[in-house]
Amino acid sequence: MVMMIWGLVTWWYTDGWRQCWLRFQEGLDATLDYFSISLLMKTLFAPYRQISAGNVRGPLDVQLRAFFDRLVSRFVGTVVRLIMVVVGSVTIFLSMVMGGLFLLFWGLAPILPVIGFLLFIIGWLPWNS
Fold first, then answer.
1. How far is it, in rounded angstroms, from Cα 123 to Cα 47?
2. Which of 40, 99, 101, 127 suits a disulfide with 24, CB 3.0-4.6 Å?
3. Which range, 7-21, 56-70, 85-99, is most confident?
4. The pTM is what?
């Protein structure tokens, strides 16, 4: 019995914690890859979905229309990319915080029943404090 408990505690604080850390890293890498903030910043002023009029030759009114089409496409692209940068930054931050809390909880989880038992022995109740 003692060997089983010792084996569990040994695994918990070595391989188990390492596996949790690797899962946290993989999840964070997937989130970083999904939002790809560096790529969004590089293409911040690019036309939205590559919709653009290209080089247009012809009368002045046709060239002005193409210019404003490109301008609107770049404005829409900038707004969409800025929203994605903000949403991605918030998601990455929350992923880091939640992952850090999970890793902290992983380290404390085996100790919590002992703490609860000790609090039970001394008669402490959270609603009577």
1. 67
2. 99
3. 85-99
4. 0.77
